Amino acid sequence: MPHDLLLALILYAFVSSITPGPNNLMLLASGVNFGFRRTIPHMLGIGGGFTVMVGIVGVGLAGLFLAYPPARLTLTIVSILYLVWLAWKIANAAPPSHAATAAGKPLGFLQAAAFQWVNPKAWTMALTANTLYAPNADWPSVLAVAAAFGAVNLPSVSCWALMGTMMRGVLRDPKRLRLFNWTMAALLVATLWPVLRNAV
Q: Is residue 12 helix, strand or coil?
C-alpha cells in the first residue's frame, strides 16, 4: 500500500472511529452511569469485534468484485458520496447530550462485539474502508485496513467513555463542540484526496 494511501487510511480510521455514532453514544452513557473501569469490557468488545468485522467484510467483497467488476466503481462512488455527506453531518452535529442512559449493568465484551453486526455506522465504515483502501480485496490490503482500525479504534472509542466519566461538560460547550465537529469534518474530507488522485 502506498505511503500516502496508508496515512489516509489511518486518518479515516481515526476520524470515523472517534466521531459520534451508536458505539460512542453508548460509551458516553455507560461512562456517565457506570464509570470508566466498568465500561472497559464494552470498549474492548467494540475494538475487537469491529476489527474482526472489517477483515471479514473485506475478504467477502472479493467475490462480488470478481463476479461483477462495475460493482467496485459503484461502491467507490457511493462511499465517496457517503463520506462527503457524513462530513456535512459531523460539521453540523448537535451535542450528544440526549444519549440513552444504560440501565442495570454495562454492556459486556461479547454483547458489544455482536452489536457491531447490527450497527449501521459500523457496516458503512467497514464497507467504505475496504472499498477505498483495499479495492482488490487482497489479503495484504484487507489486513492493513483491519490493522489500522485495530490500532486506532479502541483508543478512539475509549475517549467517549472517559468524556462521559470525567469531561461531559466539554460536550455541552457549543464553541468547543463546533470547533471539534468542523475539524473532524475537514479531516474526513481530506482522507478522500489520495483515493481521488489514484482513481484519475
A: helix
Angle at 118 between CA 20 and CA 17, to 5 degrees: 30
Positive/negative CA dihedral, 127, 117, 137, 152: positive
Categorize the per-residue pLDDT at 97 as very low, low, confident or very high, splitting at 50, 70 and 90. Answer: very low
Distance of alpha carbon 162 from alpha carbon 39, whole angstroms: 9
Where are the domains positioned within the chain? 3-193
Which has the closest alpha carbon to 75: 58, 87, 88?
58
> What is the reported pTM?
0.72
What is the per-residue pLDDT across 124-142, written as a single tens digit (0 to 9) for each? 888 889 888 988 878 888 9
Q: Cell digits for 101? A: 442512559
